[in-house]
């Protein structure tokens, strides 16, 4: 069926039927949604969810679609959070800022640096929206967003009420949170951050120090760190505006100390990091590259030749083709190293 992009304005949200999702996911998969709701007024969320046409259809929330893979058309309601607003609620040594879910993460990071707040510099240039940031606890270059989150404001679909979850109740972990574990329960509507004016810079992650040196910077500020991260990311990660991708498609696996020791005896070059609980995080990129999958291409589905964690769409790859290539990579790594990789983005519509 040809997607019908005409939408009906309901005041605070717009509804369209049989809508194309191609421009709404950064893997550029040409799937469609039975219903698409674009919400720009959070107070209208309960009404939008109660729309009579939606019945009991499944619901999928999207921000910029930078962390999802639609493996087929979605027979349900896609809710795009398009709410905007950044509000400084309390100023002082540490500032509390409430940010609407639909704001772009990278815009917020740049705004915070321009206002003189510190902390988010390592997280510059991560695609996606503010509302998506707590769901997978976005992280890069030694920093995770959870550290700066005071609370997550959400609509609880079970209890049908708005609530505020303090950080301690969000179960944040490596690319993980309560929101991932209860996927059908919460719709994030805003995030409250606490940002300091002063903070020790995080420079220890591999590559940042060297990059600052290359830039000729002796005494780095938060700005310099942001610039260094922009250089590193631009060099290593393909730009979704140029080639469809969802950032890291695979998570770095965690294995127990015994399994790590065995793997490292056989593969001493495997990059790894010991966790406080003695489990060991392994570089999934290295495992994938060692299997010869970096730069692999099957039709338009591929693994980036710049970074082995990144699944790319060279043009017209379907969601099913991308998912099938990802499975091939996972099975290859499992066969060679005995480690099953988890996917980082939400994979929608795949069985098993
Ligand atoms: N490596 C390879 N082959 C590659 C790429 C990397 O062998 O193609 C090796 C590197 O040599 C290095 C190690 O893997 O020793 C780690 O590489 P990198 O610094 O690129 O980090 P990563 O662990 O692969 C993680 C995040 C990225 C984030 C970077 C930098 C995950 C799943 N990914 O990647 O996040 O930008 O660290 O902090 O944790 C994302 O989540 O979308 C994302 C891009």
Description:
The chain is an alpha+beta fold and 352 residues long. It is 22% helix and 28% strand. The protein is built from eight helices and 21 strands. The chain has helices at 45-49, 105-114, 178-181, 208-214, 222-236, 257-266, 284-290, 319-337, and strands at residues 7-9, 13-20, 32-39, 59-62, 68-70, 74-81, 86-90, 94-100, 139-140, 143-144, 149-156, 161-166, 186-196, 244-248, 254-255, 272-274, 280-282, 297-298, 301-303, 310-313, 346-348. The longest helix is centred in the last third of the chain and has 19 residues, at 319-337. The protein starts with 6 loop residues before the first strand and ends with a strand. It binds uridine-diphosphate-2(N-acetylglucosaminyl) butyric acid. Uridine-diphosphate-2(N-acetylglucosaminyl) butyric acid (EPU) binds next to strand 14 and helix 7.
Based on CA atoms alone, the radius of gyration comes out at 21 Å
Model regions low in confidence, pLDDT < 50 over at least 5 residues = none
Number of strands: 21
Please name the CATH architecture of the largest domain. 2-Layer Sandwich
Counting H and I runs of at least 4 residues, what is the number of helices?
Answer: 8
How is the biggest beta sheet arranged? 5 strands, mixed
Provide the CATH top-level class of the largest domain. Answer: Alpha Beta
Q: How many angstroms does the end-to-end distance come to?
A: 27 Å
Q: Which fold does the CATH topology of the largest domain refer to? A: Uridine Diphospho-n-acetylenolpyruvylglucosamine Reductase, domain 3
From N to C, what is the helix and strand string?
Answer: EEEHEEEEEHEEEEHEHHEEHEEHEEEHE
Strand content: 25-35%
Mean residue pLDDT: 96
Helix/strand structural class: alpha+beta
Net shape: globular
Count the domains.
3
Assign a percent range to the helix content. Answer: 10-25%
* Cofactors and ligands: uridine-diphosphate-2(N-acetylglucosaminyl) butyric acid
Order of adjacent strands in the largest pleated sheet: 1-2-3-6-4
